[in-house]
Amino acid sequence: MALPCTLVWATTWMSDANECIAPWLGLPELPVVTWPDPSDDDIRGGLHWKTRPLVDWADGRPFVWVDDEITDADRSWVAAHHPGQALLHRVDPRQGLTERDFTLLGQWLRRSTG
């Protein structure tokens, strides 16, 4: 699969995702975001504990975050603190990624990297 981006694991599985999930999905070994301990400040502010570390990891580059726990608080914080383009896409955990999700993600990537 050719993507106009770098695919990265941003999961609590961390490097285990490369051993346990990637082969099942037919993915190569991918870079992994290493997570710091969650901050009480994020919890009180309604942010997901991954939000700040992902913005730090993106370092101003465009990025897409696909997760089943993204909220409007995360979207607002990223819009205010990330200078690049970002798409925070919430996926229904009961369905996982659907064809509709892949279509939306592909359209966003083409617009953002084209």
Task: Provide an overview of this structure.
By secondary structure, this protein is mostly helical. It has 2 domains: 7-34, no CATH class; 37-113, no CATH class. 42% of the residues lie in helices and 9% in strands. It is built from 6 helices and 2 strands, in the order H-H-H-H-E-H-E-H. The protein has helices at residues 16-20, 22-25, 40-45, 51-58, 72-81, 99-113; strands spanning 63-67, 86-90. It has a two-stranded parallel sheet with strand order 1-2. Strand 1 (63-67), helix 5 and strand 2 (86-90) form a beta-alpha-beta unit. The protein is globular.
Furnish the topology, listing elements before pairings:
Elements: H1 16-20, H2 22-25, H3 40-45, H4 51-58, E1 63-67, H5 72-81, E2 86-90, H6 99-113
Parallel strand pairs: 1-2
State the main characteristics.
114 residues, 2 domains, single chain, mainly alpha, 42% helix, two-stranded parallel sheet
Concise account of the structure shown:
The chain has helices at residues 16-20, 22-25, 40-45, 51-58, 72-81, 99-113, and strands at residues 63-67, 86-90. The protein is mainly alpha-helical and 114 residues long. It has two domains: 7-34, no CATH class; 37-113, no CATH class.
Structural class: mainly alpha
How big is the Rg?
Answer: 14 Å
Number of contiguous helices: 6
End-to-end separation: 17 Å
Low-confidence stretches are: none
Shape: globular
Number of strands: 2
* Portion in beta strands: 5-15%
Total domains: 2
- How many strands, what sense, and barrel or not for the largest sheet? 2 strands, parallel
Mean pLDDT: 90
Strand order of the largest sheet: 1-2
Percent helix range: 40-55%
What pattern of helices and strands is seen along the backbone? HHHHEHEH
